Amino acid sequence: MSTETFGQALRRLRTARGLSLADLGKLVNYDRRTIWDFEQGRRIPVPDAVEALDRALGAAGHLVQLAAATTMKAPSIPGLPDWADSERLAAGINGTAAPDTSMRDYLAQALALQRGAEDTAGAAVVLTPTLGQFTAVDALRAAAEGPLHRDLLSLEAQYAQFLGWLHQDLGDRGASEQWYARALMLAHEAGDDNMIASILSMRSNAAWGAGDLRRAVDLGEAAGRPRNATPGVLAFSRQQAARAYAATGDHREAEVALDDAARLSECASRDPEREPPWVYFLDEARVELQRALVLRELGRYDRAAELFRRALRRLPAQYRRDRGQNLARLALTLALAGEREEASAVADEARLLASQTHSDRTSAELAQVDDVLRRKLVTD
């Protein structure tokens, strides 16, 4: 098992040369958020970018070799570690070797790559391997001691939270709640305020989707309370609270929460290294998508549709699951506004992505589109 990933090497070389994320980004024509994603293993740069980074950092081909080796291991999911060659990790899992930090880092990298794969291909593709990796983390954590035990406990909470999200997107609310509950217990045990806030926010999202609006509001507010949560995590919490308030008709609280989210997002963008690894898509497009959802809940359909369109143009192409989800949301917004033809065309585009990514949430939104269009046809 390699002792250093592409992202780890990139970060080591950058910090050794005293460069900030923004400094390195300027040298290779990328923004600091993208460099951060490269370092965290969420994205593998294209070959030309790898070569530019290698030259900028004087790596003498080391980064090129690491990127090539990482990509060759799993062509279907770029960068996924090769589990078949991980004899040392297997020894740690079965108890014949003591857990160590390289095993922890390996599994953290695997989770980052599963998150990226889910953004592209959907929850169904990554559910089974993620369950296996969770079992591996659980086994290592049980055998670890001292600071490593705490680190693995936090990583186990991240895996459980991600599994809750996967089941939520696949429409299995019971399994989703069970995984979120397990993640919350682990996060409390680890003292991880970022994960606690994130789980509460995602449970608010699930309650909102199920129509349990009072609970959605309460969970959204609770997600903003952990004292040591970072600005990026709190931005998501306030976005979710805004959506819940808007659904209950509380316009004033929804606007306040949205303004809070925008301020916190800007703060997070100035210092992305403070943020936990699951906060990797906090950008202007995501904030606009949340604002569009709130405006739709408030009945301001024209403005909501405008923001959906603008945000979709900015959403990275690899986020196919999210593109389908938000195309469906745009279609519903257009249907509510009475724009029948455009709503149908956008819904068809979303339907194709929903079938490819197996997103139950997208399919549920499209069912609402069909229902609104039928009702409007009858009343017209």
Question: How is this structure best described in words?
Answer:
- Among the domains are: about 80 residues, lambda repressor-like DNA-binding domains (434 Repressor (Amino-terminal Domain), Orthogonal Bundle); about 100 residues, Tetratricopeptide repeat domain (Serine Threonine Protein Phosphatase 5, Tetratricopeptide repeat), CATH 1.25.40.
- Helices cover about 75% and strands about 0% of the residues.
- The termini are far apart.
- About 5% of the residues have low confidence.
Radius of gyration: 21 Å
Shape: globular
CATH superfamily of the domain at 284-380: Tetratricopeptide repeat domain
- The CA-CA distance between the termini, in Å, is 65 Å
Give start-end ranges of low-pLDDT stretches. 71-85
Structural class of the secondary elements?
mainly alpha
What characterizes the major β-sheet? none
Give the % helix: over 70%
Write the layout of secondary structure elements.
Layout: H1 6-16, H2 21-28, H3 32-40, H4 47-56, H5 62-73, H6 87-94, H7 101-121, H8 123-143, H9 146-169, H10 173-190, H11 193-209, H12 213-222, H13 231-247, H14 251-270, H15 284-297, H16 301-314, H17 320-336, H18 340-357, H19 360-379
Helix pairs in contact: 1-3, 2-3, 4-5, 7-8, 7-9, 8-9, 9-10, 9-11, 10-11, 11-12, 11-13, 12-13, 13-14, 13-15, 14-15, 15-16, 16-17, 17-18, 17-19, 18-19
